[in-house]
Design brief:
The structure is a single chain. Helices cover 46% and strands 14% of the residues. The chain contains eight helices and seven strands; from the N terminus they run E-H-E-H-E-H-E-H-E-H-E-H-H-H-E. The longest helix is centred in the middle third of the chain and has 29 residues. The protein binds NADP nicotinamide-adenine-dinucleotide phosphate. NADP nicotinamide-adenine-dinucleotide phosphate (NAP) binds next to helix 1, strand 2 and helix 6.
Length: 259
């Protein structure tokens, strides 16, 4: 299926590895030219070079922290009028919510809510004028199925989810959509590190814990990042203009309810 986005431009935040990179690669496979961001400039350049070589698209880099104004400005300077925006950032720390201080709550809010809102604000009216825009927020399955140990993440991401739903209907008439993808158990560095922290006292090795986590999924495996990227690319496609304000679970069937 031709997704109809060949030659479009995308800013993909937090994309040197993991889910962000998978989204960047899936868009590049459709002929989308990219600006990708991450804090570690060296790994970012390496990722960009690999995507360029594999997909023959333009890949510019904007090294920086997307949770800061300067990091976002660098991304927008490299691509002031993107057709596609993928909002992503690192997740906040896991732990007992009673131990988190005010600064940590504000930090999580910055990373997983405010950064995305600022980027949306910067690009969405231009998308509406040009009559094409696709915005994806990478959030978490926790938005629909919260977990106390990830309270920082849940609280901030639900704020972004509510905001997104509130504004989606304002823009769909101009062929600009905003949707969120809610991952769970995609095997990335972040997932390995979270499992390590949550199971530190279990007495089992990290590989054993990962195998147990995979076995506990209805899918009996972890998600593959390519699967995540492919869904992202479809939601960014020309065919997805009637689909907005949605929260799409990519969780191997773990979420137990209908809605
Ligand atoms: P990952 O493999 O650790 O990759 C994170 C990427 O984001 C890296 O490229 C990292 O590069 C970049 N990054 C992190 N903080 C950044 C910042 N402040 N500014 C710019 N770039 C930043 O993580 P992942 O698993 O893909 O997770 C992506 C998001 O999905 C996270 O918010 C995570 O909590 C969420 N999530 C993932 C899963 C899952 O199953 N993997 C489940 C639920 C939610 P630098 O470190 O160089 O900046």
């Amino acid at each position: 299926m031709d997704l109809g986005i060949n030659g479009r431009t995308a800013v993909v935040c937090a994309a040197s590895k993991g889910l962000g990179r998978a989204c960047a690669e899936a868009l590049a496979a459709e002929g989308v030219n990219l600006v990708i961001t991450a804090r570690n400039a060296e790994l970012l350049e390496q990722t960009a070079a690999e995507i360029r070589q594999r997909f023959s698209v333009t890949v510019a880099t904007a090294p920086g922290d997307v949770t800061t104004e300067s990091g976002r400005a660098a991304a927008l300077e490299a691509c002031p009028a993107p057709d596609i925006l993928i909002n992503n950032a690192g997740g906040p720390p896991v732990g007992d919510w009673r131990t988190f201080e005010r600064d940590q709550w504000l930090g999580a809010t910055d990373s997983n809510m405010v950064a995305a809102i600022m980027l949306i604000r910067a690009v969405i009216d231009g998308m509406a004028e040009r009559k094409f825009g696709r915005i994806i927020n990478i959030t978490s399955a926790l938005v629909k199925q919260p977990h106390a140990a990830l309270s920082l993440s849940v609280a901030a991401r639900l704020g972004l989810t509510g905001f997104t739903k509130a504004i989606a209907a304002q823009y769909v008439g101009a062929n600009v959509t905003i949707n969120s993808l809610l991952p769970e158990q995609f095997e990335t560095d972040r997932l390995r590190s979270n499992i390590q922290k949550l199971t530190a006292k279990s007495g089992r090795t990290l590989d054993e814990e990962i195998a147990a986590a995979a076995a506990s999924s209805p899918a009996k495996r972890m998600g593959r990042v390519e699967e995540f990227g492919a869904v992202c690319a479809f939601y960014c496609s020309a065919h997805a203009g009637y689909l907005t304000g949605q929260n799409v679970m990519l969780d191997g069937g773990r979420y137990p309810a209908v809605f």
